[in-house]
Design a protein that fits this description.
The protein is mostly helical and 196 residues long. The chain is built from 7 helices and no strands.
Length: 196
């Protein structure tokens, strides 16, 4: 949606810059999705066996791994960044924001796994719809003002909103499921490194 809106509201150059960074950041989406899919069988097994501590440890171990990979990946791109065409040199922040989104993506997947396990598909749909509508509204506002950067800011705000909505939905029925403060700690570590 971001690319279509950028193309419609801005120009092909803005769309190309955003698409370039979006494609590079997608590496973290693949990693985040793979980590989520890898733990699902154990997640369901541990839920059946009421082993919440094991679930929480598994989630945190993968979160640490994901943050480590995030730091390594943005460092690697930072090393080759000076060799990029000049068109992309003023837009590295777009890459960092889009890549950071996939840390948040991992977080909301961990909460959505629980909602899916409990059969709360209406909650999943509602939370996703709210975030999607927010993304559209923010794109209209932010793309006009900040172009490609606005689209990446819109995306990170909508991902964060979905993460928080999923967290609230889980906490209403499950107090011992993975605490949000651990996500905040690891997201903060990644964010601090990304700003260096």
């Amino acid at each position: 949606i971001d690319k279509f809106m950028l193309n419609d509201m801005e120009n092909l150059v803005s769309t190309a810059i955003y698409s370039f960074w979006h494609n590079l950041s997608s590496v973290m989406m693949v990693v985040s999705t793979a980590l989520n899919k890898a733990i699902l069988p154990k997640f369901f097994q541990y839920k059946e066996e009421n082993k919440d501590r094991d679930i929480n440890k598994m989630i945190e171990d993968n979160l640490k791994l994901l943050v480590f990979l995030f730091v390594g990946y943005i460092s690697a791109v930072g090393i080759i960044y000076p060799f990029f065409p000049s068109t992309y040199k003023s837009s590295l922040l777009i890459f960092i924001l889009l890549t950071y989104n996939y840390l948040i993506f991992y977080g909301y997947n961990m909460y959505s796994n629980y909602l899916y396990y409990r059969g709360k598909t209406i909650k999943l749909f509602t939370n996703t719809a709210i975030s999607g509508i927010l993304n559209l509204v923010l794109n209209v506002i932010l793309i006009r003002k900040y172009s490609s950067l606005g689209a990446s800011i819109s995306t990170i705000i909508s991902f964060t909103t979905m993460f928080i909505l999923y967290y609230i939905s889980v906490r209403r029925s499950e107090k011992d499921y993975f605490p949000i403060k651990k996500f905040i700690i690891w997201f903060s570590i990644a964010g601090i490194f990304a700003t260096i």
